[in-house]
Amino acid sequence: MSSTTTERSIPGVLWIAVVILGVSGLILLSLALARSNGRHLLAGLVCFALVVGLCLGHRWAYVLAVFFHGPLTLIVIVLNPRGMLSVLLINLPVLVSVLLSTSYFFGTQKPRALVNPLVCPRCGYTLLGLTVPRCPECGQQFDIPM
Questions:
Q1: Which pTM does this prediction carry?
Q2: Is 5 a residue whose pLDDT tops 50?
Q3: Long-range interactions of 58-61: CB distance < 8 A, separation 24+
Q4: How far apart are CA 21 and CA 15, in angstroms?
Q5: Are residues 114 and 54 in the same domain?
Q6: Same structural domain for residues 140 and 70?
Q7: How far apart are alpha carbons 141 and 107 in whole angstroms?
Q8: Residue 5 covered by a domain
Q9: 3-state class of 146 per DSSP?
Q10: 65 to 24, 39, 75, 83: CA distances (angstroms)
Q11: Same structural domain, 114 and 101
C-alpha cells in the first residue's frame, strides 16, 4: 500500500531566489547593524520573510517577490541609473527564478471530477444491476467495472 502526501518539493530553480535573497538579507542586516540604518534593517527582514514564504509555497511571497524584483526594480533603475548593474545582478536572477516556479505556487493541474462507475457518465442513469455494457436511458456504451 502506498501512502500519498500533499507535500511539494521546492523546484530547483527556486533555490536560486532563496539563496540570493538569503545572502542579500544577511548583507542588509549587517549594514543595518554597522550603520544603524533602519532602511537596511527593514529590507533585510523583508528578504528573510520572502525566503520563508517562498520555501513554504505561499502565494503572497510569490506576488511580493515578483513585485519587488520586477516593476520596483525598474523604478529604482530610473531613479538611480548609476546603480543599475548591482540592482540587476541581484534582482534579475531572483525575478526569473521565481517566475519559472509559477506552477509551484499556483499549480497547473485542475482538480479531477469524481467518477462514479455505477452512474452513466453521459446522462447520470444508475447502472446498477445491468447485464449489458450499455446505458438503457441514453445508449452510452461503457466498460463494466469488476
A1: 0.61
A2: no
A3: 58/105, 59/105, 59/106
A4: 10
A5: no
A6: no
A7: 34
A8: no
A9: coil
A10: 13, 18, 15, 20
A11: no
